[in-house]
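Try this one yourself first.
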């Protein structure tokens, strides 16, 4: 069982940066692939980024590639999402996800989800 708690969301102007953090409970954090999804009002939940258990492999949505970076710090049971050059269309609730066996872009494959953190980018 893993509990995920996101933090770091907020209001930022277009072009600015934010770093989201996701703290995971448990002693086996390094055995989980991690990821981020987001959901904007009136839109479906969409994949943002994923990171393998070792941290050596990553996936990014085309819409964030080159602007967002996912990373993990196993010693702190934490995964991060560094978001640069933010755009108003990045406004959404961002969710941290984890799974023991799945590492990819399909939301229904991830077993554990955080409660979400709001990111709002003003123009």
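Now uncover the answer:
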């Amino acid at each position: 069982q893993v509990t995920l708690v996101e933090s770091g969301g907020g209001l930022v102007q277009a072009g600015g940066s934010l770093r989201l953090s996701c703290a995971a409970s448990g002693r086996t954090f390094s055995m989980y692939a991690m990821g981020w999804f987001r959901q904007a009002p009136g839109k479906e939940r969409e994949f943002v980024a994923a990171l393998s258990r070792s941290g050596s492999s990553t996936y990014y949505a085309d819409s964030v590639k080159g602007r967002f970076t996912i990373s993990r710090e196993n010693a702190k049971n934490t995964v991060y999402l560094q978001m640069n050059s933010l755009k108003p269309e990045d406004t959404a609730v961002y969710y941290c996800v984890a799974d023991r066996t799945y590492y990819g872009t399909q939301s229904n494959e991830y077993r554990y989800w955080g409660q979400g953190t709001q990111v709002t980018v003003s123009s």
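Discussion: The CA atoms of residues 71 and 80 lie 5 Å apart. The longest strand covers residues 92-99.
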